[in-house]
Design a protein that fits this description.
The structure is a single chain. It is built from twelve helices and six strands. By secondary structure, it is of the alpha/beta class. The longest helix is centred in the C-terminal third of the chain and has 15 residues.
Length: 275
Amino acid sequence: MTKAMRMMEESVGVCDGIIYVLDARCPASSYNKNLKKTFGSRPVLHVLNKCDLADAKLTESFVKLMHSRGAACIKLNAVNANSRRDITGAISALIAEKQSAGLAKGYSRIFRFMVCGVPNTGKSTLINLLSREKRAATGDKAGVTRGKQWIRCDGFELLDTPGTTPPAFENQTFAARLAFVGSLNDDILDVDDVALALLGELAQKYPQALGERYGVAVGEPIDMLEGVCRRRGFVLRGGEPDYERGERAVIDDFRKGRLGPVTLDSPDDFMLLGF
């Protein structure tokens, strides 16, 4: 993270604006307030990506909140080619004033934007959408982008950067939600803790989704996990539940959207960040 932050600080000086990609399922959790100092006075477009996996009503609430604070923001599904017009329009609006001023003086130039966000929010997928081809490496886990790369699109250039998370998680609830969506490296996490915490939060906010997907009643996370295992046939010799298979199934189902549209953050969570 320190190396990635240093890389961004060294490159931001040649950028005209910022495209800040957030996960629509947890926009506040995926927002790194420490980057505001790095961005300086440059205009920022906040992109609530993966909106197809998020609760539509809450996504609209986040967009309205940001607009009310004077921040540019759009919702997006970067894997959908039809979304390209929405993002290009938003980018054009971000630099319209500066572009018009240049044209009035008789010159035009290529504008540059830094694309940033926590790992696995879809930054590279967004870049590939804009460039109309697979120019940036993508994956369904954190840490796919390792270094910076400039990519030319129609009328502007994009700088793909490695994902950056806060150097220290002051809010453990936000940290847990980043683990749920795959923005933290799974190899350093305890799958037991992640799965049980996810089940607990889903039981509070989307109990119907658990019932429809697994046929389990809301209760203690460990009891719900056992129910998932038995319903799915994840059983070891002797009749004991195969908890590890059940845990990975729950996490994977959530990340792939098989539990339906889910949003873990609320607009009030942005208040905790001083947005």
